[in-house]
Write a structure and sequence with these properties.
Blueprint lengths: L1 E3 L5 H9 L4 E3 L11 H11 L4 E4 L15 E5 L6 H10 L6 H4 L2 E6 L2 E6 L6 E3 L9
Parallel strand pairs: 1-2, 1-3, 3-4, 4-5
Antiparallel strand pairs: 5-6, 6-7
């Protein structure tokens, strides 16, 4: 399941849906509006079927948030580029399947990816693939 935080703009959600990405959004399809990050969202993720949760809240980018039942993706990009970078991450060879994403906490930026994996001692940095389709 691809799950978007409520802090992702509606126009970006519509764009992803038009591109035939099946997704749900906090406050619209799952949970309720105004859910608190630590108290509400993380426990909600445990009840869902291996979700990949996209948020613009960089506070989620912490190694202790890694869990084998979900993936957290923190989008450190301009609001108008959110949909493009969601698609880029989902197409990246290191994350193009649910199994590859589980247990990771990923920060996405125009420069590339920084991530923590379950039980890792250090963060990894990955570039965007050169020559790959970016939109």
């Amino acid at each position: 399941m691809t799950l978007l935080d409520e802090n992702i703009a509606e126009d970006q959600c519509r764009l992803l849906r038009r591109q035939r990405l099946r997704l749900r959004q906090i406050g619209q399809d799952v949970g309720r509006q105004g859910m608190k990050d630590r108290e509400d969202i993380l426990p909600l993720l445990h009840t869902l079927d291996r979700p990949t949760f996209f948020t613009r809240d960089l506070g989620f980018f912490e190694p202790n948030r890694c869990h084998g039942r979900y993936c957290l993706v923190c989008l450190d990009v301009h609001q108008k580029d959110t949909a493009r970078f969601v698609r880029r991450l989902l197409r990246h060879p290191s994350f193009n399947t649910k199994a590859k994403r589980m247990g990771a906490v990923i920060r996405v930026s125009g420069a590339g990816l920084v991530l923590w994996r379950l039980n890792a001692r250090v963060a990894e940095s990955l570039p965007w693939n050169r020559g790959a389709h970016q939109d």
